[in-house]
Each structure stands twice: as C-alpha cells, then as structure tokens.
Amino acid sequence: MSMTLTQGKRLAKTRSDERITARTFIEPLIYLLPFIVVVSVFMVYPIITVFLNSFLEDYNYLANTYSGFGLGNYSALFSDKEFVGALQNTFIYVGCVVPISTVLSLAIAILLNKKLRGTSIFQFAYFLPMVTATIAVGIVWKWMYHYDYGLINYFIQVLGGEPVHWMEDPIMAKAALIIYGIWGKLPFTVILFLSGLQTIDEQYYTAAKVDGAGSKKILFRITIPLLSPTIALVLIINIINTSKVFNEVFALFNGKPGPGYSLYTVVYYIYENFYHEMNVSIACAAALVLFAIVFLMTLLQTAVQKRWVSR
Amino acid sequence: MKENGKTGKVLIYAALIIGAVMMVVPFYWMIITAFKTPEQVAQMPPIWWPTSFLTENFEYVLSSGEFARYIINSIIVAVISVSLTVLVTILTAFAFSRLKFPGRDIIFSLFLGFMMVPFELLAITNYVTIVRLEWIDTYRALTLPYIANVLYIYILRNFFLGIPDSLYWAARIDGASNFKYLWRIMVPISKPAIITIVLLNGIDSWNSFLWPMLVTNEPEMRTVTVGLTSFVQAAGVRYERLMAAAFIVVIPMMILFAFARKYIITAVARGGIKG
C-alpha cells in the first residue's frame, strides 16, 4: 500500500513538468523579463507611436500637444518638393546599386569559388569594406573624388578624359554616391553568393563537363538556375538595405544632403525633419511611406520569385 | 583543352586581382595620405609611396585629447552593448527553446516579424523617448535600446534547438536546475553561435553612426564615428589629418578582420550585418 503511494507520488513529480501550473508561466517570464522590457519600450511602443504620430497635426513632441487628427501630414509630405525629390533619389540609388552590385558580386563569387591559390588574400581584400565604418570610408571616398587632387580625376586624366566635379555638380554627385554604394555593397553580397554556391552539388558540374557543355552553358544552365533562391534573397536584402541610404550621403557631403541640398534620400529627409526641424509627425509619416514601399517591393519580389525560382 | 585551362586560369587571376585592387585602393590611399605632408597631399601626379613617413598627423589627431576620449567611449559602448546583448539573447533563446509554456512558438514567430521593421523607423520615436527620459549623453541611451536583437535570438534559439533532449533529462536527473543546465551545459556547447553574435554585435556597435549621433550632444560622450564627423567639420580641407582620423577609426576592425576573417565571414553569411 505504502509502495504504491510513493510510486504514485514519483509519477506525479515527473509529470509536473508538463502540467500547467503557475510555475509554467513564472519561470519563462523571469527569463524573458529583460527581453520583454526592452522590446516593449524600444520596439512595440515606438511602432505604435510612429503610426499614431503620423496622423497628429501640428504635433509638438516636447510639449506633447497637437491640434487635430488626420491625413494632413501625408498630403503635406507629397506636396513637399524635397520629399518627392528624396523619393526619386532613393529610387535611382536603389535602381542602380542593387542590379549592378548583384551582377558584379555574382561574377566575383563565381571566380572566388574556383578555390585558386591565394583565396584568403582575395577574401581579405574583397570583404574589407564590410567591417569598416561607412562613415569613415565615406570620407576617404570624398577625398578620392576631390576635383584637383583626387585619385579618380587623376585616373580619368591619365586615360585622356576631362576632370569631373564629383562633389559639386548635382548629377555627378549622384553618380559618385552610386559608385561608392556599389563598392560598399559588394562584400556582403559576395558572401551570400559564396555560401549559395557552396550548396550546389559538384556532380552537376561533373555531369555537364562529361556532356561537353561550355562554361557559358554551365553558367546559364546550371549555376544561375540553381542559385536562383540566393539571387532572390540577395535582391530582397539589398533593396531593403539600399533604400535606407543615409551614412553614405552624410559622409560624402560633410553632413549635408549633396551639393545645394540636391541629394536628399528618404532617410536623410526623415533625419532632417525630426532632428533639425522638430517635425516628428512629418518624419513618422515619411518613415511609414518608406516602410510601405519597401514592404510592397518585397512582396512583389516574393511573388515574382515563386514563378521564377526553380526550387 | 589543357591549354585552354591555363589561359582561363590566368584570366581569372587577372580579373580577381583587378577587382581586389579596386576594393583595396581606398584603404591604401587613406593610409598613405595619412603619412604625408600638406605639400605632398596637393601634389599631382599623386605620390604612391612617400620618401618619408610622417607621424605628425596622427599625433595631431590624438593630441587634442578628444579623439582619445571617442575611442574610449566606443570601447565602453561596445563592451556594455555586447555583454548585455549576449546575456539577453541567451536568456530569451533559452525560454523560447527549452522551457515549455503555452503559445511559445506563436509568440516567437510574432517577434520574428519585428525583424522586418527597419531601425530608422524606430529611431524617431526612440529618440523622443530618450529625450523624455533625459537620457541624452548617457551610456544607457547608447546601448540599452538595441540589446534585444531578434535576429541574434533567432540564431541562438536555432542552435539551442539542435542540442539533444537527452542531455537535458540527464542533467535534470542529476538534480541540475534549468538555470544551472543553461549556464553549465547549453552555453558552453553553443560557443560557435555566441561567437557569431559577439562578432556581429561588436562590429555593428563600433561602426554605428546614426543612433550615437542622435543621442549625444556633449563631445565627451561621442563615439568614434560621431567624433570623426565633428572632426571633419573642424579640420575642413586638411585631408592628411582627415585620413589619419579615418584610419584610427577603421584600424581596429581591420585588425579584427585580419585575425578572425573566417569567423566573421561565417557570421555574416549566417546573420548579415548593418550597412
């Protein structure tokens, strides 16, 4: 009789882990407490307030006063020449940097994946921009773009061209920003492609070579189709990242959005509005517009990907 | 066929070398300029290898004392940020993988959705929060808002989920509490994932610019990146000094990369890095 009782107790004890008691909630809660506090204050709360703030009219965040609730900020945003310009500049930047850096990165990754001698030196060279601060390297690029003493104009002249006003001419400034952006995005993209390439089974290449396929055919019939999930991923990540371009502009143009304020990007516009002009609700509306655009592009991208990606 | 392979190899090498040179030239040019005199800087055609290397520019940058302060700040911020982030990540990942509570996986996938929200969107209202809390110019403001990183938690949780259950039950039979099991067994096993998080977070912390710029006003609270931009405004067109300052900001990460290249590349492939 006593035997069965203790046995029963033991059974109950081992099963207590699966039963829902106060402890089931309290223990995880203790582990999750720091996470919950930080996420609620610095993530959930701001997401809600960004959304709400964007509808507040004449909002003063220091006094916490506003005159009304409506779509005024959004209509003000789209009638603001600077914001429309910022959208255009951001689109041009994303539209140039993402395709060019993707194609270049794919080429570099395929070459690096051949596992020739000196790979570690090449890796060091190609991946260095990834770990170095955009803001510091941007100042180096600004120096290279210098009209009189910059390396880039020097090479242009060596090749018989005319020196370019990279930092002063609005159109060339855009080009300068894009070139620097491509250079900066390469390392991360190459790394993603390299890890994608490593998942391709060596047998495909062996079989293709046995069949006598040329390297062009191997590239377009094997490598690129099998790499399509990685290509889709790279496009999504790069679109998201490049649409937030800010540090590059800040570094190249010394804390101004380009020559004659011609190079506003959306994030630069947001920064200028809430930090310098104290227009928090306009900044919130602009941030939500950016988020909506990026989100839609990602959706579009995944929809296209479903039709196109072979795996 | 063999002939073809050889010329192919030469072409590949040529392409890789040209590309590598283009990637490295800005760094080379930064370092060389930092060792030049103002006269040498303004010389055309440019001097690729100066006859003497001047250390005056570095002395100038560091002598004002402010830059040394920026470096110390960045180190403090990186250490606080990395240790708190790792702590929060370990505790959270444990709760979401080992502990059982109703709705656990649904709640976690909800949090995963937060990865979609860009940092810039949060920066506006977080800045307002920091102003209201009167945290401007504090280490709290520089570190606390970003110690709960969903991506890092995701990486570590996946690692934790790969640890066999039998280990857990063995430890429980030996009388170990959940807490003991986490620190004595799970954390040591998960070293690779934790190193990944430390590297990604350390690099991001050192290089971050927008947030530290927003929440610091006083020069003595600036981090290196913010300090660098204010130095640019002060030094103007003295490019040899600017390059010396940029070099000081960049060199710790270059050294780290030279030694931990393989770890960093795997870490980035796994988790990505902020631009």
The major sheet of chain B is characterized as: none
**Largest interface, C-beta closer than 8 angstroms, per-chain residues:** A-B, 93 and 88 residues
Question: What is the tally of beta strands of chain B?
Answer: 0
Q: Which blocks of ≥5 consecutive residues of chain B have pLDDT under 50? A: none
Q: In whole angstroms, how far apart are the ends of chain B? A: 44 Å
- Total discrete domains of chain A: 1
CATH architecture of chain A: Orthogonal Bundle
Shape of chain A: globular
Number of domains of chain B: 1
Assembly type: heterodimer
Fold and architecture overview:
With 311 residues, chain A is mostly helical. Chain A has one domain (80-308): MetI-like fold. Chain A contains 13 helices and 2 strands. Chain A has helices at 2-15, 22-53, 72-78, 81-112, 119-131, 134-144, 151-158, 170-197, 202-210, 215-242, 247-252, 266-276, 280-308, and strands at 56-57, 68-69. In chain A, helix 12 runs antiparallel to helix 13 (280-308). Chain A is globular, with a radius of gyration of 27 Å. Chain B is mainly α. The two termini of chain B are 44 Å apart. At the A-B interface, helix 2, helix 4, helix 5, helix 6 and helix 8 of A face helix 1, helix 4, helix 6, helix 11 and helix 13 of B.
Short description:
Chain A has 311 residues and is mainly α. Chain A contains 13 helices and 2 strands; from the N terminus they run H-H-E-E-H-H-H-H-H-H-H-H-H-H-H.
Secondary-structure blueprint:
The complex is a heterodimer of chains A (about 300) and B (about 280).
Chain A: H1 2-15, H2 22-53, E1 56-57, E2 68-69, H3 72-78, H4 81-112, H5 119-131, H6 134-144, H7 151-158, H8 170-197, H9 202-210, H10 215-242, H11 247-252, H12 266-276, H13 280-308
Chain B: H1 2-34, H2 38-41, H3 56-63, H4 66-97, H5 104-112, H6 119-132, H7 139-143, H8 150-161, H9 165-173, H10 178-189, H11 191-207, H12 210-215, H13 224-235, H14 239-259, H15 261-271
